[in-house]
Amino acid sequence: MGKSNPKTKSKSNARTKSDARRARVEEIRRAEQTRERRSRLLTLGAVTVILGGLVTGGWYLVAAAQDKEEAKAAPVKGVKSWSKLTQNHVTTPVDYPMSPPVGGDHNQAWVNCDKQVYTKAVPNENAVHALEHGAVWITYSDKASKADVSELTDKVKRTTYTFMSPYEDQSSPIVLSAWGNQLKLDSASDARVQKFLDKYVQGEQTPEPGAACTGGMTP
User: Fold this and answer.
1) Which of 110, 71, 109, 76 is nearest to 182 (CA)?
2) Whole-angstrom distance, CA of residue 93 vs CA of residue 125
3) Residue 163: which of 117, 208, 127, 216 has the closest Cα?
4) Can you give the pLDDT of all 219 residues of the chain as single tens digits?
5) What strands, in cross-sheet order, belong to the sheet with 116-117?
6) What are the CA-CA distances from residue 86 to residues 47, 103, 180 (Å)?
7) Answer CATH for 80-200 from 1.10.10, 3.40.462, 1.20.120, 3.40.30
8) Where do the domains of the chain lie?
9) In Å, what is the CA distance from 178 to each residue of 9, 23, 146, 184?
10) Rounded to whole angstroms, how far apart are CA atoms 34 and 23?
11) pTM of the model as a whole
């Protein structure tokens, strides 16, 4: 038998190791490409979800703003309005032509009117000044049910630029007043309560929009 050539054997072993290294490198490269593709897909999916959320959220915000503007523009059935109301500061009682009053001369101090619930009557002259600042005044007589008073109380506590007090000299159980505008109701569950608030809280009727509803007087 002939003897094997050591040099030939060495070269063969070298080629085998080289082929193995190339195969290993190729395997690593393919694995890296797979990871990169997976990463790109995950990133693309995340971006798609985020963009979808932004678009959906954007449309929601636009729709909500549009609904709010439409609510402000839409008339509220049953509202009675007055115009050419005076705005002088006085220190004496005022004989208002409507009850509760919705505007006219008033005291220089406004009643605090930011989510404020009063269990006793407030002076007309101070309440009217709050209306001048864009607040809505909710009043109720002893004809209003306890459930209605409770519901209105919860609503006022959640709504800025509103205040509430008992008022016996009114013809309906519940009355909502804004500067120059008034709505008389029998029940707090009437959908027009929210419509009135949407339209008249800091609404277009406000003589002094942006004026404070705090820092006034508390009876």
Assistant:
1) 76
2) 7
3) 117
4) 555 555 555 556 556 666 666 667 667 677 667 777 777 777 776 666 676 666 555 554 545 556 555 556 789 999 999 999 999 999 999 999 999 999 999 999 999 999 999 999 999 999 999 999 999 999 999 999 999 999 999 999 999 999 999 999 999 999 999 999 999 999 999 999 999 999 999 999 999 999 999 999 999
5) 80-81, 181-185, 174-178, 136-140, 162-166, 116-117
6) 58, 7, 11
7) 3.40.30
8) 1-73, 80-200
9) 104, 83, 24, 12
10) 16
11) 0.70
CA distance 46 to 44: 5
In whole angstroms, what is the distance from residue 135 CA to residue 160 CA? 8
**CA–CA dist 21, 1 (Å, integer):** 34
Assign 3-state DSSP to the chain and report helix, strand, coil percentages, each to 5.
Answer: 45, 15, 40
Cα–Cα distance, 89 to 104 (Å, whole number)? 9
Tokens representing 189?
A: 């569950």
Q: In whole angstroms, give the CA distance from residue 6 to residue 12.
A: 10
